[in-house]
Amino acid sequence: MLSRIAHESILLGSELVCESDFVERDKNYDVRETVSSEWKKLDLEWIKINSNGTICRKSILAGCGSLLRNDQGIWIKVYMYNIGLSSHLYVELRGIIMVSIGPGTLDIEKLPWSIVTSPISRFSNADLLAKQGLPLFRGLHLLVEPLPDLIQFSDKDTRTSSIAGLVCGFWHLGSEIEFVNMSVSERKTIDLEQGWDFMQKGITKLKNILEGLPEPQFSSEDYMMLYTTIYNMCTQKPPHDYSQQLYDKYRESFEEYIVTTVLPSLREKHDEFMLRELVKRWANHKIMVRWLSRFFHYLDRYFIARRSLPPLNEVGLSCFRDLVYKELSGKVRDAVISLIDQEREGEQIDRALLKNVLDIFVEIGMGQMDYYENDFEADMLNDTSAYYSRKASNWILEDSCPDYMLKAEECLRREKDRVANYLHASSEPRLLEKVQHELLTVYASQLLEKEHSGCHALLRDDKIEDLSRMFRLFSKIPRGLDPVSSIFKQHVTTEGMALVKLAEDAASTKKPEKKDIVGVQEQVFVRKVIELHDKYLAYVNDCFQNHTLFHKAHKEAFEVFCNKGVAGSSSAELLATFCDNILKKGGSEKLSDEAIEDTLEKVVKLLAYISDKDMFAEFYRKKLARRLLFDKSANDEHERSILTKLKQQCGGQFTSKMEGMVTDLTLAKENQTSFEEYLSNNSNADPGIDLTVTVLTTGFWPSYKSFDLNLPAEMVKCVEVFKEFYQTKTKHRKLTWIYSLGTCNISGKFDAKPVELVVTTYQAAALLLFNSSDRLSYSEILTQLNLTDDDVIRLLHSLSCAKYKILNKEPSTKTISSTDHFEFNSKFTDKMRRIKIPLPPVDEKKKVVDDVDKDRRYAIDASIVRIMKSRKVLGYQQLVMECVEQLGRMFKPDVKAIKKRIEDLISRDYLERDKDNANLFSAMSHEKVSSDAFGISRLRAIVFLVVPQGTIIFILWYLNLLVDNIQLYLKDSILICFYW
């Protein structure tokens, strides 16, 4: 049988040869596969033969392989790659003792071991074997490179046209391959001195080759003899097993070569020349390690593995590290850093040389980065800091902020380029951090606050490109964007406050009577705020890459000046007025539909910065009501669009009443149509006047004063007719007539010509009094109309002192007094046949503010009760904080107001103050314990409330907050409450 020695020799020898001479297979090939089942063993078991290979570009016959196997597994397998002038065989041996092939016979015996070789280069073209008449032995020897004394071939007829036909030739030519068993005892013993002398010759030859001396290359026979010598010396029986001695001499070979040859050549050179010599010596040393480790390979496989010693490759590299690296690493580091500084100054250097030198620092660590980081990188980083510190100290004095940032950005780019070309990739974050620290962190405040070119100046001058560069640079340093965003916030706030002041100054310089001019200034102010918002939002999106820090700064800046009033008007009122001017007919803002939509979108965005959103809602609702009731809305689609936007921004509760108003008006128009049909079907009911009544739900609309105006007989009949009609539709609703919102068309019969007067209901009622009286005093008019003094003064002033003097007043002054008398002015004339006499509007600002304050008290009460119901016991500070947080979406509650509401709730027994801690409150239960002989254990109350629908909605919400056990039923406008 084939001995284990032969097994190991074939395996190691073939692996070593292939490792040194393997040429990677070309990709330009075709694969051919055929399967045959023509061959049988004597026991009739099938044996499959697969032919796989490539078609050579020069010989179509070359490039096949063969595979033999049976049901026990693969036994012999040969792949041959023919690629031009280079061919390779892949041989796999599986326990073959003998292959004997004759006509129709096949004998194969399997052993319990196997050999798998790597691809093996061949030294001559396959076709040359046939041309030179080489025997099969020679062909196999060139391919497999086994130990010659371990394999014996009996050659019958071994000539073949190609190496690819070797195995196939076994079948057809009847060749015989025999592996002969050779025991260890049959070999001649080699002593240490004799064996080492032979090895020394091979090592000296290798050194000469490395030094460039004339020396022939190693042949395959040379190589195998060196390997065999080491193998034999390590496998001899003790005391002739020289494994340990050979391991030591392996190290000594490197040390001797380094001390006598390598170090002297390095010591005599300096700077860049030393670096070049080092790179050359390191490359030679790695070659020497590779070859010697192959010669001594048997040590690695058995002796070193069993003793847990450092492997041969590591021993070879450590010799260089201990003898060369440790002596020269400091000089090498300084030389490399010097070259890097030269390149930073603009000089040309050999980057490939630096790459090779720095690779030595990495490779010498054998998988660890300690040598690179400790012996080179640390000093390189310190030098980098010092270099850029010097540069920055000069640049900060000489350059403007944009120029400085250009240089800083270029420096960072070049450092990244150095990492890409010769520094190790792991150095990049630490290197850039050093550069950023010296150029940006150290001088951040000086750079950003430069008087004529800093961040303020860049924002002022709209230097978008420089601002983008500033963001890119300062975003890379820790908290570097904080000062930039702070300056951005200051700048935006300053610009916004300048707009506020400009609007204030414009309003104060105008005459008080020219209110239309002041209104225009307020409109201009809102428009400029929108433009400012668009401008700096674009900065946030483009220059500052949507960074949250700048979104926050932008928001906080607008919150500062957007909550400032202008000319006595709050920002909430200004926004509501601006929207009204866009949406009403005849507004000053003449825009296309697309522009209106875009502007409304921006107004809603501005609303997000206003703290008193409830104030805006009330002002907007007032103005929306006037647009809807007096048919002043330019486009219903725009009205619905802004309500949708407000709903998305502030929630459904914010717009519920406004949406109800729009819907309510649609229902009112349907109701008017029904009324007109009713009149056409009941001619007796027709009052003889064209009557239009708008029926609205009180809860949706703003509250209006309702007075018992003494209507003229003509109007009384109209009211009665509509009441009769409405009774036919429902009997459970109460109609409240708001005469102050009504209008009336009156035909005035003047001497010159009749003129149609368009007036309010109040004005019409006053004018109709003069049908029965030629002259009336102020007090008589007041008594007959049953109105307040303020309303009578307003309507009489509009009829006697304004542009259209329908009434003559005595005395003829510009003001109304209680002693005045009035007469019908029959001499009145106008070029128009139809004129509208406006009634001076009542300043409703105070009423809106009072209504909002009232609603806020309810909201604060509800919030406090809701919090205490869930928390039971809570301290004052925490209660205030939670209340502010809950209400913050709609308005910013005043802490004093919250405190006042807490005291009120305590007085009403909803809260209780702790006896020991005045700042601690608890929710009170409404169950009372009485000492009377008789007590009420349960109370059920039934309350009928006739209230408007909107008020019902509020009561439902409010009562549910205050009372735990309550049942509410609603039918039409009647609210029925059960609680216990």
Structure description:
This protein has 33 helices and 23 strands. Strands 1, 2, 3, 4, 5, 8 and 9 form a 7-stranded antiparallel β-sheet that branches. The radius of gyration is 52 Å and the shape is elongated. The chain has 7 domains: 4-186, no CATH class; 192-324, Cullin Repeats (5 helical Cullin repeat like); 370-478, 5 helical Cullin repeat like; 490-667, Up-down Bundle (5 helical Cullin repeat like), CATH 1.20.1310.10; 742-842, Cullin, Chain C, Domain 2 (Ribosomal Protein S5, domain 2), CATH 3.30.230; 845-924, Winged helix-like DNA-binding domain superfamily/Winged helix DNA-binding domain (Arc Repressor Mutant, subunit A, Orthogonal Bundle), CATH 1.10.10.10; 936-980. The protein is of the alpha+beta class and 980 residues long.
Helix content: 55-70%
Mean pLDDT, rounded to whole units?
75
Largest sheet: 7 strands, antiparallel
Q: What's the total count of β strands?
A: 23
**How much β-strand is present in the residues?**
5-15%
- Can you tell me the number of structural domains? 7
**Based on helices, strands and strand pairing, what is the structural class?**
alpha+beta
Query: What is the end-to-end distance?
Result: 107 Å
Would you identify the regions where 5 or more consecutive residues have pLDDT less than 50? 1-185, 512-518, 927-980
What radius of gyration results from the CA coordinates? 52 Å
The number of distinct helices, counting runs of at least 4 residues, comes to: 33
GO molecular function, one term: ubiquitin protein ligase binding
Protein name: Cullin-1
Pfam families: Cullin, Cullin_AB, Cullin_Nedd8
Family: Belongs to the cullin family.
